[in-house]
Design brief:
This protein is an all-alpha fold. The chain has 3 helices and no strands. The protein is 57% helix and 0% strand. The termini are far apart.
Length: 110
Amino acid sequence: MVFLPDESRELPPPPIVNRNSVWLGLMGWMSALLDNAYNRRPIIRAGVHRQVLYVTVGWCLGYYLSKREDYIHAKLDRELMEYIKQHPEDFKEKDKKTLSEVLEDFHPIR
């Protein structure tokens, strides 16, 4: 599948309720309401089956977009970690400072 490669099956699934699913579900519902308004039907009461269908399609699209987003970010993280392992001289560990070394000495004015 071009949209989600087989590598994406190794990742944990995103939660069912996520921001993409909610947003696209609401957009699907709003598009059904706008379709009712455009065709001069009662906005909320007409075509409830169509409203449910549009919400479901939007929710599923949002879920799969979240899966793709997780896959792309995981792939970028994997490539970045591989680069860091291959070039350790560019990513040296810095010495940890204590808080007293970071803060300046306090001298009261009065």
